[in-house]
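Morning. Coffee machine broken again, so started the prediction first thing and wrote up yesterday's gels while waiting. Chain of 351 residues, entered below exactly as on the submission form.
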Amino acid sequence: MTRTTSGRKHLGRSGITVSDLCLGTMTYGTQTDSNDAFAQMDAALDAGVDFWDCAEAYPVNPMTTETAGRSEEIIGDWFAHTGRRSDVVLATKIAGKGGVVRDGAPITAAAISGAVEGSLRRLKTDHIDLYQLHWPNRGGYMFRQNWTFDPSDQNRDETLAHMEETLDALGREVRRGTIRAYGLSNESAWGTAQWLALADRTGAPRAAAIQNEYSLLTRLYDADLAELSANEDIGLMAYSPLAAGQLTGKYLDGAVPDGSRKSLSPELGGRQGPRVDGAVRAYLEIARRHGIAPEHLALAFVRQRPFSTSTIFGATTLAQLQHLLGVIDVTLSDAVQDEIAQAHKAHPMPF
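Came back before lunch.
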């Protein structure tokens, strides 16, 4: 079966429905200028991709104190220019400990109101549909920290107290009408379970989604959070489904195309390593054998996972975005997915 427009999914139990593809905007203001960003937003909406993701700390490549908030400002300028805010389901995030806003302060109940107001001002809107906690204060195993992850120094009581205070603050924003729902990002199974349990016990808002990294090369979600998603009605918003561009094949054999993410971030956020090229070649061969563009294979795989709510993809240019939107008409057969499973067994955790 093929689709001519992006499909729709429920955003947890929030009552909000979203396109199962999500426009990522983290390059707006650095690699992508306002004119190209405007054209991308037009093209995404025309294709039925009405779910867009941003963050107060964006843009990236690099992420700096000086540029933080510029991506939100560009989206806000587009809303003001087009008058189409009501056509978009808008997600953004509050940055946490060690970030480039609020002097790297952690997420606190006291910080939420001011952070929400700042995002609303930059976005030129009166509400945010999904407000996400960019990463947990206590840290975690995301961003390649899984190789040395050790939670033994965490303080459970402090973590739960922080969660309860934060939920109370998020509830106030929901009642105030500034946000409709909240979500998590770069969170673990234990952490997500605690957020949900506290919400159920206190009547606070329930997390509607988890935004974690997931791709053919990064499948930690399969081992723990997939079960939580199935049983708790909280789906994945997958970021970096192209593994920072590696699944296109453009970085094979050490290639660094001009203007690419790797030209700005040589290690691709820790995604480089001696096993990566072999894994990428395995997936490129599956795509070649079945006549599927490698980018579409990677995106369609994530999109079709049973726990997937929406697959976030971004592009530096309009031409790249238009190519990626071709995944709307791609559905992977059982045979292709069986081949992907075999490749995954041969190339587990390549970075």
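The CA atoms of residues 170 and 222 lie 29 Å apart. Going to sketch it on the whiteboard this afternoon.
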